Amino acid sequence: MSFRGKRVWITGASSGIGAALAEAFAAEGARLVLSGRRRDALAQVAARVQPDAAILPFDATDWAALPRVAAEAGVIDVLVNNAGISQRSLAVDTRPEVYRTIVETDLLAPIWLTQLVLPGMAARRSGHIIGISSVAGRIGTVLRTGYCAAKHGLIGYLDALRAEVEQAYGISVTTVLPGSVRTRVAANALLADGSARGASDPNIEAGMDPAECARRILAGIAAGEREILVAQGAEAHAAALRFSDPERLFDMLAREGARLAAEREQGGRPEPAPVSRTIA
After folding, report:
1. pLDDT 10s digits, 133-173
2. CA 34, 35, 36 angle in degrees (round to 5)?
3. Which of these, 133, 10, 25, lies nearest to 76 by C-alpha position?
4. How far apart are CA 179 and CA 181, in angstroms?
5. Which pLDDT score is estimated for 279?
6. How far apart are alpha carbons 84 and 235 in whole angstroms?
7. Rounded to an integer, what distance in angstroms lies between the CA atom of residue 161 and that of residue 168?
8. Could you please report the per-residue DSSP string of the chain?
9. CA–CA distance, 68 with 66 (Å, rounded to integer)
């Protein structure tokens, strides 16, 4: 599959996986539209990977603005729904508004943006929708009840969308499930009260380089994979266990949940353990 000359719209493009994908698509000759909340950060990415890239900043949950934004983006050949926010809090402590923020950002926003570009793709009988879900979209891991709910939901939406549009309209739909990638996802994650965590965690710091993640995503797309698992080690093992031995996986995760609950009862702030220790 060639992206040369294709207009590729990437959300969450100012850093992390989004910025790495921008560089990877630019190297393939794509014409980029870069979106995120901060124009200055997007401009820095554009200056590095494609100086003439279109910069289109917006808030993914500004529902009233999204139709205008989609119109400004123009004809889109490939939409990469990457923008999102994570979580690091136990359900028993988490405020309802935190769930609303995560579900609106990680599920409703990519659905609505896809719905806005979909009619044009259907009319042209071509296009490609790419959704960045997560390994947490396949397994229900601790400290991420809202995040898992949204990412599971995104997989369901994309699977159902693919069934409707792949053969009928020639539109490809690719779901991506990254594991831990060295980005600011943990630092930006929401705590129980809705504040940002402000610090990374061991799994993220030991995670995959964003450039390698982007390379694997484009390689999976080139190979025609409809779902691309971008994980290694214990995370890849856990994703496989969800199908091969779910009861074993549930037991492992429940033990980690019990450990975190004990930390909470002792007055501490529950902190994630390395995945290699949790999934063992």
Report:
1. 999 999 999 999 999 999 999 999 999 999 999 999 999 99
2. 135
3. 10
4. 6
5. 61
6. 20
7. 11
8. ---TT-EEEESSTTSHHHHHHHHHHHHTTPEEEE--S-HHHHHHHHHHH-TT-EE----TT-TTTHHHHHHHH-S-SEEEE-----B-B-GGG--HHHHHHHHIIIIIHHHHHHHHHHHHHHHHT-EEEEEE--GGGTS--TTBHHHHHHHHHHHHHHHHHHHHHHHHH-EEEEEEEE--BSSSTTTT-B-TTS-B--S--HHHHTSB-HHHHHHHHHHHHHTT-SEEEE--HHHHHHHHHHHH-HHHHHHHHHHHHHHHHHHHHTTPPP-PPPHHHH--
9. 5
CATH topology of domain 7-233: Rossmann fold (3.40.50)
- Write down the residue that tokens 């965590």 correspond to: 197
* Percentage of residues of the chain with pLDDT beyond 90: 93
Residues in the chain, total = 280
The strand order across the sheet containing 54-55 reads: 54-55, 31-34, 7-10, 78-81, 127-132, 171-178, 227-230
pLDDT at 204 over 80: yes
For 97-135, the pLDDT digits (tens) are 999 999 999 999 999 999 999 999 999 999 999 999 999
In terms of Cα–Cα distance, which of 21, 73, 75, 74 is closest to 50?
Answer: 21
Catalytic annotation, residues = 147
Task: Report which of 64, 80, 65, 97 is spatially closest to residue 30, judged by C-alpha positions.
Answer: 80
Distances (CA, A) of 242 to 69, 137, 138, 237: 38, 11, 7, 9
